[in-house]
Amino acid sequence: MNRFIAFVKKEFLHIFRDYRTMLILFIMPIAQILIFGFAITTEIKDASIAILDKSKDEVTRELTQKLLSSGYFNNDAYLTSESQIEPAFNDQRVKMVVVFEPEFGRNLQKEGTANVQLVCDASDPNQARMLSQFAEGIFASYASQGVVKGIQPEVRMFYNESLEGVYMSIPGIMAMILMLVSAMMTSISITREKEYGSMEVLLISPLKPLQIIMGKVTPYVMMALINAVSILALGYFVFGVPVKGSIILLLMECLLFTILALSLGILISTVAKNQMVAMFMSMFALMLPVILLSGFIFPVENMPLPLRIISNIIPPKWFIIIVKTIMLKGGGLLYVWKETLILIGFVVLFVTLSVKKFKIRLQ
């Protein structure tokens, strides 16, 4: 029995000395609970909307205040015409526009009914549905108080009138596949060289660190692009997801994101000591953030401030915005140049860190 207890103690010491095991046993479950608990929510909080008030009377001002004081909506802008609605959506500024008809209050008083239009960005159909339902509920609650009667909300969905869920899933799936597959394959690539002992041969060769990195990345670029084209083709021909913008621009953005994912994979491989560690880092460090914090499934706007800040360093978030803008909204480079520059910045950062890691190994 004493021998068994001594053996168990040895195993405990072995576990406690391995920080990777401690990370898996204790830190990962806590991180998963916190991220899932805060990120997975169907609540609407401070969603950005715009107001197009053609009446500007006491009733419309009161209804606007009712919307904004509910805690569900945050006013981003006051529009002056319908022509400003689509640019506001393309600029990622607002998710819904509330349009009050002319002489709204007068129509309520004289005719007993008045119209308000809820124009939603349905590139995210779940969020658009929730926004319109929350707004309709606020109008209904306001009318039930006996203040007004006969408010007729009309819901209009931009970019996805039938609220097809696949319009949201195709951009997200593309980002997830390109990120996971590309990063994982490249991270395993170099760690395999380490395990086989051929990495040292590369490090002492005349090739510069940047050349080694580019040589590792290049073969996977074409394979990842084939995946991207396949996803786009399936989305268009099988599921009917439109490509309203430039297909050339879309493919160039896919190429940029592929290079980013491959560069991140190379960076992971320079840190990981073996293939198992590289695979674990790729899965844990990429899968959860891509699914939870990129806006793929759950709206980033509904998350607590710390998670919203963290989401800004999740590259797939910006790629999904780009894909939706080009595919569903027909926007050009003018509407996605900021997100494109962010992705380029990530590429430069990951490549620079990878080269630095190689230089450290050479010293």
UniProtKB/TrEMBL annotation:
Record-given protein name: Transport permease protein
Segments forming domain ABC transmembrane type-2: 128-361
Subcellular location: Cell membrane
Ranges that cross the membrane: 21-40, 166-190, 217-239, 245-269, 276-298, 335-355
Superkingdom, natural source: Bacteria
InterPro entries per record: ABC-2_transporter_component (IPR051449), ABC2_TM (IPR013525), ABC2_TM_bact-type (IPR047817), ABC_2_transport (IPR000412)
Pfam annotation, one family: ABC2_membrane_3
Keywords on record: Cell membrane, Membrane, Transmembrane, Transmembrane helix, Transport
Family the entry assigns: Belongs to the ABC-2 integral membrane protein family.
Classification of source organism: Bacteria, Pseudomonadati, Bacteroidota, Bacteroidia, Marinilabiliales
Recorded topology in the membrane: Multi-pass membrane protein
